[in-house]
Amino acid sequence: MHFFFYPSSVAVFGSFKRGAIAYEILRNILEGGFEGEIIPVNPKGGEVEIAGNRIDIFKTLEKSVDVAIIAIPARFVPPLIEEIGDKIKGAVVISAGFSEVGNAELEKELLEKAKEKGVRIIGPNCAGIFGVHASFFGSFEVRVNKGGLALISQSGAFGGAALAMGNEEGIGFSAFVSYGNAADLNESDFLRYFADDANTKAIALYIEGVRDGRRFMDALKYAAQKKPVIILKAGKSKSGSKAAQSHTGSLAGSYEIYKAAFTQSGAIEVEEMEELFDAAKVFEMYAKAGKRVAIITNSGGPGVLATDKAEKLGLEIAELSKGTIEELRSFLPPQCSTKNPIDLIADADYERYKRTIEVVAKDENVDSILVICVPPIFIPSEEIAKAVMDAECEKPIIVNFMAGELVKGGVELLEKHGIKNFPTPERAAKALKWLTLRE
Amino acid sequence: MHFFFYPSSVAVFGSFKRGAIAYEILRNILEGGFEGEIIPVNPKGGEVEIAGNRIDIFKTLEKSVDVAIIAIPARFVPPLIEEIGDKIKGAVVISAGFSEVGNAELEKELLEKAKEKGVRIIGPNCAGIFGVHASFFGSFEVRVNKGGLALISQSGAFGGAALAMGNEEGIGFSAFVSYGNAADLNESDFLRYFADDANTKAIALYIEGVRDGRRFMDALKYAAQKKPVIILKAGKSKSGSKAAQSHTGSLAGSYEIYKAAFTQSGAIEVEEMEELFDAAKVFEMYAKAGKRVAIITNSGGPGVLATDKAEKLGLEIAELSKGTIEELRSFLPPQCSTKNPIDLIADADYERYKRTIEVVAKDENVDSILVICVPPIFIPSEEIAKAVMDAECEKPIIVNFMAGELVKGGVELLEKHGIKNFPTPERAAKALKWLTLRE
C-alpha cells in the first residue's frame, strides 16, 4: 500500500475546469510541492492553467503511474479501470453514485474490474488521500503540515473538517485517508499499514461502523501494540446509530461490542472531536507517561482546576520528595507554594520557571509535568515559553498557556519547537491522562 | 453598588510610570472610552502621557468621586481610606499584601476605616472591575466587548484569562469583578446585584470557596431565579481543595455541600473552563429551550456525532411530524435524509438550508434546532450563514460551523448578527443541554 502514500507518479482523471473536483485535486498536488510525475487526463485534451503554469491534459493515460485519482461520473469508472488497469497500481475513486445511493451493482463491477487487473481501490465516494511526507496531497481537502498523525476517516466531510481544525490546533500529519464506501481497502488495511509506517507516530480513526469485526479487531490489536490508536466512534446512541446506518449503509452494530473491542485491543477511545485533536497532539509529542503529575503554575486558580481534573481522571498529584521541596525553597520567594501544585505566583519569570521545572523533573516521585502560564505581569509570554524549551527535562511536559491573544507569542514559539499548547487546564490534564493509558 | 459598575467619576491612586499597575488601569479607562471624570492621584504630582494625551496627576483627591481604584503599597491603604473616605462611595483595592500573606490585621484595619467612612470595598488583592455598558474598564486586564455576561471571579488571574479567552470565543460582557480577599463585598453581594442589573443576561461565577454558606445560598437562589447563573467551582478534588485553601486562605469545604447548593438553587454547574464559555455563549443568546432537538446538517458524520452527544446528555432527537417530512420531501433532493438528523448533503445551498430551517421550526414536536455546516462545496460559508440569519424561526438555533479557517467568513458574519458559533458538534449539543436546565 506504500505506493498510495509515497507515490512516484500520479494521474488525475476528471474535469479540469476551474473549481471542478479534479481541478482542485490537481491544484492541491501541484501547490503541495509533489516532486513526482503528475499526469492530468481527460478525453477532450487541451490544457489547464494552475498557479501560473500551463499544463497539457492528456487524452488517455499512456505511461504507467503508481496512483490514479478518479473524479469522473460513476458509470464510467469501471470501464476506466479496465482501460488503465495494467498501467496503475492503485486507484483513489472520488466519484460518488455507488452503493451509498443503492447502486451496489456498479460498485461490484468496479471491484471485479479492479481485481481482474490487480488494482487496489480506495473509495469510491471518498475525499481522497494525503501522503504528507511525500508532499502528496491527493484530495480537494485543505493541505496540512507535516507531522506524525495518520488520520483515517470513514466520513470524507468529517475528515476534511478535522484536517482544517487540526491545522488550527497545531497538529502535524503524516497521512490522511478517506475511504468512503470501502469497496476494497478499508479501515483494517489502513490500520495495519500505518502501524508500520515509520513517519506515523499515532493513528486517529473516525468510524461509524465496520463490516468485518474479526478483521477489524485483529488490525486494531496489531496497530495499538505498535503505536497509539485514537478512535472516535460515531453512532453510539440509539438515534445516532440509526442515522449512521442510513448514512453509510453499513451496519453500525451495538456500541457495547465496539467499546469492548477498543478496550481489549488497547486503543484509546475518545468521546468528542476535540478530544481526538488533543489526544493526537499529545501523542505526536510523547509515547506514554506514568500517573504522578507535578503541576507548576503562576496562578493559583488554574492550578486548582488542573488538579481537580487530574484527580478526577485518576491521575495522582505527585507527592514531591523532601529534597525537591528543600531545593525549591532555596530559591523561590517565600510567598510561592512548594507543595504540588507548585505556585510560582504572578511575577514568575524565565529563571523561576526554568529552575523549578528542572528541580521537579529530577524528582523520582514525578512522572510528568504540567506547566500552566496565565499572561505574566511585565514579562512577555515568550520568556516563559523559552523557559519550558530550555529546561533540562527528560519527562513529558504538557503546557497550558491560557488567554488567547495575550499568550499568542509564547504559544507560537512553543509550537515552532514542537511543544503543542492545550488551551485550558482541563484539556491539559486530559492529555496527560491519555498518555497514562499507554504506560 | 450601582456606582461601582456605572460610575460618573473615578480616581486612580498609584504610580503612573509606564507599565506600573495604576498606569495600566488609567490607560485602560482612557482607551476604553469612559466618559466620566478621571482623576489620577499621586503625592508626587506631575503629569502622565497616555495615548498622546498629557494628563495632570493630582497630589491629593480634592473632589468627590464615585469610585477610587487603589494600587499603592498595602500599608498605605487604610490611611488613604481614612483620608479620602468622605469623598468616595467605594474603593477597589488592587493592592496585595493583606490576609492572603497572613496580614489579617492590616485587612481588619482597612475594613474598619472603610466602615467608619461608609465606604464599600472590593478587594483587596484583586484585579479590579469592568462596567462594560458604562465603558468603564477599571482593571489592568484586557478590555472586552459589550454584551450580556457578568463575570464574577474569586481569582484575578482566572478572571483575566477568562476575559481574554472570552474575547476569542465571541462572548459579550456586561461586567467583570475580581473580588480577591473579599474583605467587604463578596460573591453573594455581586450575585444579587447582577441579578437585578438590566444589562446582564447571564452571570458566570468562578469560586474556590465561600465564607458564609447561608448567605451565599440565599443570594444564589435569588439570582438563579432571575437569570442563568453558571458556576465553575475549583477545589472539588481532595488535592484541589487543599491547594485552594492554601491559595485563597478560605475554607474550601466539602464539594458535596456546594454541589447540593448549586442544584437546589437552580444554578448551572459546569465542569470545565471551556464549558463556562459555551454556557455563557448560549445564555447570551437564549433564555431556555425544551428537550426536543432537530439537527440539520450538510454532512452525515458530524450529524451523527451531535446526535450521539445530545442523546447521551438526555436530550431527545425530535420525531418530526408527518407534515414536516412531507414538506421537506417536496423540495429536497431524493438523496437527502428527511429523518432527524436531517442530512441536506454536501451541495446544500442557501435556499435548501433556509427552507429546511423554516419548515422544521414550525413543527410542534421541535423545541430547538442545531444547524451543522462543514465547508460547503462550491458555496462560500457566508451563504449558509445568511440562510441561518434570514430563516424565519422563533425557536432557539444553535450553530456548529466547523473547520476553522474554511468557515471563518460564515462564522464572522453570524457573530456580527449575534449568533455565536460552537466549533464542534459535541459542544453545540452541550449548549442545547444547558438551555433545557432553565426550562
Automatic annotation (TrEMBL), chains A, B:
Among InterPro entries, the record links this protein to: Acyl-CoA_Synth/Transferase (IPR051538), CoA-bd (IPR003781), Ligase_CoA_dom (IPR043938), NAD(P)-bd_dom_sf (IPR036291), Succ_CoA_lig_flav_dom (IPR032875), Succinyl-CoA_synth-like (IPR016102)
Q: Which residues form the CoA-binding domain?
A: 4-98
Q: What is this enzyme's class at the first EC digit?
A: ligase
As its record notes, the protein acts as a catalyst of: acetate + ATP + CoA = acetyl-CoA + ADP + phosphate
Q: Which UniProt keywords apply?
A: ATP-binding, Ligase, Nucleotide-binding
**What SMART domains has UniProt attached to this entry?**
CoA_binding
- Its Enzyme Commission number(s) read 6.2.1.13
* Protein origin, superkingdom: Archaea
GO MF, one term, reads: acetate-CoA ligase (ADP-forming) activity
Protein name (record) = acetate--CoA ligase (ADP-forming)
The organism named in the record is: Palaeococcus pacificus DY20341
